[in-house]
Amino acid sequence: MNEPIFVIPLWADLIAVGLGGIQGALFASGFRGQRRLDLLGVAIIGIVMGMGGGLIRDLLLNVTPVTLQSNWYLITATVAALVGMLLAGLFQRLNAAIVGLDALVIGLFGAFGTSKALYLGLPLVPAVFVGVCAAVGGGILRDMIMGLPVAIMHVGSLYAVAAGAGCLVLAGANAFGADLTVAAIIGVAVTTVIRLLAVIFDISLPEQRALYRRKVAVETSSIPIVKP
């Protein structure tokens, strides 16, 4: 029996790959000192960021990686990485635009991953998991290759949470009968808005240490202090 075929519009997939490539190159170009990368290193990080999410998505779904079935994916990721590297100085001055593109990239990869998982018959929760992995997968691969702490494991601006919320809304809307394309658009919008609000207002999950201190404070407050 042939597996169901889910086709993401090539132009939409390439936009996500291209934006991811630019983001990766900008990230890699910003290092100085011993961690600075040469041109090849920056290009590789850009390609990993552009193609990583799609590769992880298809590997989790046990289907042939779409990004390796066409010349355009690798070409787009490479060109985008070079553009990001050559125009790094300009892009760094457009920080607001870069933050917006970053939020949009997360939303696109998350929506594509969740939509494909739902189309292939996965239940809602696993489909959301695949979408989140696709959204943050490129960043995880980037950090691992560069020997950096994985960003989503530390205090930040709701990176994975934004992706999870968008993917959950997408899957929920589809479960209630919304067309998959319409649900995907809604999911992208939700992820993008949450990510932007988190960055603008510096919202993040509480640190583990803060939670521990709060727990100790609550527990010790119930212990009576005996005065001599």
Automatic annotation (TrEMBL):
Residues 10-87, 101-171 form the Glycine transporter domain. Its main location: membrane. Keywords: Cell membrane, Membrane, Transmembrane, Transmembrane helix. It comes from the Bacteria. It is a multi-pass membrane protein. It is found in: Cell membrane. The chain crosses the membrane at residues 6-27, 39-60, 72-91, 98-118, 124-145, 157-176, 182-205. The keyword ATP-binding does not apply. Belongs to the UPF0126 family. PANTHER family: INNER MEMBRANE PROTEIN (PTHR30506), UPF0126 INNER MEMBRANE PROTEIN YADS-RELATED (PTHR30506:SF3). This is Trimeric intracellular cation channel family protein. It comes from Microbacterium insulae. The lineage of its organism: Bacteria, Bacillati, Actinomycetota, Actinomycetes, Micrococcales.
